[in-house]
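Table S2 (continued). Query chain:
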Amino acid sequence: MVEDEIGVEIELDQRSEGFQWIVSFFVVFFAEAIDKHKNAILLLDEPGMSLHGLKQRDFRETISRLAKTNQTIYSTHSPFLVGPDELDLVRVIELKDREEGTKVHTTISSSDPAGLLPLQEALGYDLAQSLFTQQKNLILEGLTDYWYIDATASLLKEANIEKLDEKIALVFANSAGKVVYYATILHAHKLKIMALLDSDSAGDQAANQENLVHTLGNKNILRTKDFCTNIPKAEIEDLLRETLITIVKDEYGIDTKTISDSQPTRPIIDIFSKEIANFSKYKLAKAYVRWTRNNDATILKKSEIENWKKLIQTINKNLK
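Corresponding output:
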């Protein structure tokens, strides 16, 4: 009989194959390591293959305990059996061809990128875990949204106009369609979450996803059009419409103000994309960040300050 995580006794043969394996491994090796396996070299080929990924991580600790009294060597393709704090112990092995044979690298290198894949996945997993360090999270569509919010919030804070809660983490999902995945994962970790979506077609599609609405609730799905006046399909750049027109004139030498004034309900990115050859949202966002380093909030238009003040207040309130 064995006891599960909630204290219920269950016959060992009724548990999963992976659980049975780890129990038998633990009993055999730890019992015999005290006697005849003491100071032995233990060679393990793909241990824990039947275990869930996170259980494999736990099992790696078991192997480390064995290694205190026995030299332990194991092969694996699983990133969960690669310890990011034990990379000095890792050896990448590759078979280039039959004539040269198998090569064991003494450094973390490989002529075949696939040989480093478990290491990359292990480091990627630990990097992803850093998403779960903050209790309050605002999910954004992309990196440029992050730059606009971070830079503008700093301007307003320095001018004592409004302050974004410093405990709120800004998380960018790389696209509107991926926001739901980030929301689902963060929600599973019982963290507070909001999402800010543009009001273009991609944002509309994401905002209407049943899973996102179920996870966040309508009040925690913010749309940029709610913080702009008379721009139904507003994107985050429209909250800085006049300032970006000035920056575009300096960066590209093209004045789009007349067109913008004549088409006030048209998203400013549509105008820039039409009027400027090889226009880049990424380049514009970087130019704005540089602009904020040499200017303060008093240079922003009154309407822009009000837009951002309202947005920040809403974020702070809903993630209180």
